[in-house]
Amino acid sequence: MAFDGITIAAMVEELNQALNGGRFNKIAQPENDELLITCKGPQGQRRLLLSASASLPLLYFTEKNKVSPLTAPNFCMFLRKHIGNARIVSIRQPAMERVVVFELEHLNEMGDPCRKFLIMELMGKHSNIIFCDENNMILDSIKHVSANVSSVREVLPGRDYFIPKTQEKLDPFSVDEEAFLETICTKPCSIAKAIYSSVTGISPVAAEEICFRASIDGSVPALSLTNSERLHLSHVYMRFIEQIQNREFTPFIVFRGDEPVEYGVIPFTMYGEEYHTIPYNSVSEMLEAYYAAKNVISRIRQKSADLRRIVQTALERNRKKYIIQQKQLKDTEKKDKYKVYGELINTYGYNVEPGSTSFQALNYYTNEEITIPLDPTIPPGENAKKYFEKYGKLKRTEEAVSQQILETESEIEHLESISNSLDIALMESDLSQIKEELTEYGYIRKHAAATKRKKAQSVSKPFHYLSSDGYDIYVGKNNYQNDELTFRFATGNDWWFHAKKMAGSHVVVKTHADEELPDRVFEEAGRLAAYYSSGRGTPKVEIDYIQKKHVKKPNGAKPGFVVYYTNYSLVAEPDITGLQEA
């Protein structure tokens, strides 16, 4: 979610509670576009991060410190000189803009009190941190913007500061029913877009939530709404804005499994059952947790990009080969016809007149008359021989292609299991094992550096969950771990789970002697097997489960491949909400 006006309103509320009346103690600039300010307020000392990054502008309290350069940048030195010990008079957000204004009081060289403004603009690629005097004249900024860069506003020392009005948007707090109906509901676009493009501080996600609360599809044209739908939507909008005015903020993150999907400060109701929400005590905690989790996932995805490309290329190649092989196999279905032709020519060929292009014969297999094409330039016996040769060639082709199809199916199944392992990898050590497997099976060329399987395995371990009844449940992250878990770690009476006929992790429940497992353990292990499979995006997944002693590994089988001949089945949701990692 964008760091929109609503989130900033909640952050300003948090800043006021923690810092209003306090002081700046220390100012550092660890990055070119970032400030780290240590402040002391009513709640004690806090560290405030202000990032004007073009890709990820942020403002929140953090417990983490950052190493600053030995020589402070000019902007940092300038701030230290003027507001290094300034008192925080007020912190405000102008009209739900993505702007936070710190009003500061300090003593000048003569010992007289002066006012300054530190302004944080969180506007995507136009984000900036600007320092102004009491007359709103820019003294300096973390990014200088000249007229060559922006025709809207220069951000340079000596220029007047103003918030650029690049779009004519309404103040959300001044929008009444009449303005909502006349301005928003008459726009020639979808109703959700009409809301966020007309009102300051409302993001697309917030606009979709307003529409959802009104039981209206946000993608329908605004002009297509009935009068009653427009009135109802305006009332829902008013209530939504009241929550902001009344500071009814409850920071939260929406997760799909372990992956953070969205964050907000006013509860979202539009997410379905496959999502779950975790509340946080503060906006800062929410933002830090959200971006920390996002960074882990994005870093692993970035590092696994090459492996994904290799797997995807191999999968596409094998799937194309499989289609060609299936077509070749279908073409061999006519082999039996040629065999019958040859037999019937040998049986009835003495009646064929020389030079005939065909003849009628009774097919004694079906008791039907059929017409057999003939080559008139050769005798019937030679025609029969040609048909038997065609039959033999197609039969040999069928046998060879059938074997090739089995090999291709095995290859596709193996690659799909590796693709699933990449989807659930969380650490670089997980990727090391996957890379080793790809190298072992020829998808990655081996090089001088020896593989480090033992080292990788000692670092990367299976997921370990604790069931509600206290049973240990283990989940393999990749094919090597699946083999290790099933055939070296699990004992005969442990229970083994796997998604039916799809790529997925081996899940093992450790049993206590001959004790019978509670039903809830089977259900929770099934949910884990469903979630860590390629079917995690579906509402339900069929799960096979059986005692480990009935699971076998064929000789020469690829890692992770097993067979079993009797099993139980259950249907599970790919949702692991509430399951505790040990």
Unreliable stretches? 448-458
Structural class label: alpha+beta
Count of DSSP E strands?
21
Tally of individual helices: 14
For the report, how would you describe the main beta sheet? 7 strands, antiparallel
State which percent range the strand residues make up.
15-25%
User: Which percent range fits the helix content?
Assistant: 25-40%
First-last Cα distance? 31 Å
What does the overall shape look like? elongated
Task: Describe the structure in your own words.
The protein is α+β, with helices and mostly antiparallel strands. 38% of the residues lie in helices and 21% in strands. The protein is built from 14 helices and 21 strands. The strands form five sheets. The protein has a seven-stranded antiparallel β-sheet. Strands 5-6-7-8-9 form a five-stranded antiparallel β-sheet, covered by helices on one side. Mean pLDDT is 89; it is low at 448-458.
Name its key features.
14 helices; 21 strands; five-stranded antiparallel β-sheet; 582 residues; alpha+beta; seven-stranded antiparallel β-sheet; 21% strand; 38% helix
